[in-house]
Amino acid sequence: MAEGLRAEQVRLPAPQGLILDPVLVVQAVVSGLLFGGVYSLMAIGLTLIFGVMRVVNFAHGDLMVWAMYLAWLGATRFGVDPYVGFVGAAAILFVAGFAIQRQLVDRIVDAPHEMQILLMLGVALVLENTALVAFGPEPQRVRTPLTQAALWLGPVFVDVGRLVTFAVAIALTLALSLFLYRSDIGRQMRAVADNGYGAQVIGTDVRRISALAFAVGAACVGAAGALVAPLLPFQPPTGLQLSVTSFNIVIIGGMGSLLGAFMGGLLVSVAESLGAVFLNPSMKELVSFALLVVILLVRPAGLFGRRAI
Predict the structure, then answer these.
(1) Is the pLDDT of residue 175 over 90?
(2) Is 13's pLDDT higher than 50?
(3) Which has the higher per-residue pLDDT, 296 or 17?
(4) What is the pLDDT of residues 93-107, one digit of tens each?
(5) Residue ranges of the domains in the chain?
(6) Helices in the chain by DSSP H: which ranges?
(7) How far is Cα 82 from Cα 247, in angstroms, rounded to an integer?
(8) Which of 81, 42, 92, 71 is nearest to 135 (CA)?
(9) Packing angle of the helix pair 284-298, 238-253 (nearest 10 deg)
(10) Measuring CA to CA, which residue among 198, 302, 199 is closest to residue 255?
């Protein structure tokens, strides 16, 4: 994923003094904000799983890579545009997430965290190597006409593919928020996240709610993967970096906070985009991790760490 991002950035010539075109900076902010919608959706899925189950899903990035390949298969084999096919990818990841939770995670949910970590790392390795066997090591990318179109706002251009991706990601985030705060199942998820034992005492089926939370989180990352597939090249090992980025965003926003995951995704994406302008594009990740260190020094619980799902 990093290679794809670098290819999308503009490398500045080494000037004698630090003189930057303000248009280039504005362009970086716009591009970062638009791409941040995908980062936010990706992180929301991870924080939902952690908030309800207190399980750190190290397979999160690999699930997203599988969603990318599903979008690629839909586009190449069936002619389904990924901006339509993301619904199918999210549905398939929902079922896969439900199965993973029921058959694997549920067995060790009360075990020490070391066992949970080892299990999810094992799931990540299985997903990555299965994708490697099924699709090979070559980078892939989904082609769609939307990524070849642009809207010009004066000297700044807006990539139509990124704009549509941002709009869909925002719509899905709002829909998830309504689901969590307006539906009975959503209220039960928040109750389990707040106090699992108390929710069980009042009759909530904690096992079923946990499975649904894991499935919804997987569906979020499934939609994010299908939406980002036209924007960046991907291959099986991409999952590791996606997982690291997701954890970075969630920690910055505050573990268990949906608002924190959303704002953290936008913040990290803009920071990386600006980092590619002010620094060497290959060092843009340094900016996001420096941001992580600064925020943890000021607010150890993250920007919205006190908020709960």
Answers:
(1) yes
(2) no
(3) 296
(4) 999 999 999 999 998
(5) 37-239
(6) 2-8, 22-53, 60-77, 82-103, 113-135, 160-182, 184-194, 196-201, 206-228, 238-253, 258-278, 284-298
(7) 26
(8) 71
(9) 30
(10) 302
